[in-house]
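Example record

One chain of 387 residues, shown exactly as stored in the release files.
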Amino acid sequence: MIQFNALLKKELKEAFRDKRALMYALMMALMAPVMIYAVSNSMIKDLTETPALYINIQGGEAAPKLMKLLKDENILPLSQVPEKEKRLWQERNIELILPETFAEDMVEGRMIDVILRADYQEKALFAPLRRIKEVVRKYSAAIGSQRLLVRGIDVRLMRPVKLLEQDTAEPTSGPVFITMVLGMYLMMAAFVSGLSVAIDSSAGERERNVLEMLLCQPLDTLKIVLAKLSCASLIAAIGVILTLALTHFAIGFIDLSKIGATFNLDFISVSALLLLLLPLCFFASALQLFFAFGAKSFKEAQSTVTMIVMLPAFIPFALSFVNNKPQWLDWAPIAGQSMLIEDIFKGTPVNWNLVAFTTLVTVALTVALVKVMAEKLKSEKAVLALS
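Predicted structure tokens for this chain:
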């Protein structure tokens, strides 16, 4: 125990000595309020506001009622665009084309082809196109109902079934994207905060010949690995706790009531989050040390370990496209934490059995990585980067 304490003291001293690396480690936490505030406000603005759209309308003079409906929804002709936004809407180039025979076809009761032309793959056009299509559908439904009424047919015959939707989500659950981003950000903090310490204490020490000198001493390699892991995990845990605190602080300045949502983290929710995230700090640091020890140089370690940092972003994103998730994903590190954290932010009751099992699997994998690293450090190939 004395040897371990001495090793841990040495690792902590070196980690806190480099102020620049420490600032980089905690950058994720310090950036949290800005990022959460900006992303959430942008999302709420898109969901609640109907800013003016400017589109190129051809043949609009033949359909005055449709033009009025578009104007009521703040969808205006391109000729009315303000000068400062002119270039933006010209580049977006949304066209609504009505046929020359629109008025005649309407009188004759024929089907009219209205063309909406735009780049449907452009993300910035998703919301504008959705609004335009809703207006055209509403106009079409209104005309259809009027024709039925003129012929003495009850319009309710066209709707034999009326669907009443009842949302069972908790009032605290906001849009899926916001809850996913919050969870992703916290897990990223676990992976990013200890990154520089993990690389420097493994590949960095090997390049400075410090690791070789350390292994020449009568020390158990398991204690050396545990000391490095504890130091990197401590920095990661500080980053996670800071991120969680500052995220809670930033959410207080976001008006979630605009989208009918609330956000409240009570003692139980915070306890569950820490129970999920702190073991993840150890797992992330163990994974980073494992790959950094396996790299042949400091630069290679930086490249390899940086790719691992993308896991907390990649896995939740991939999971969002899986409709029927296999059960083992509930227990897997990162995937399990991601889904549980998302549920906590939605305000659903904490599944403590799942939290405990996911934590257990994460700890078990961390222990396995530590034992493999301790064995590898007994080999000259690993110490001298010959493998």
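Notes: The longest strand covers residues 53-58.
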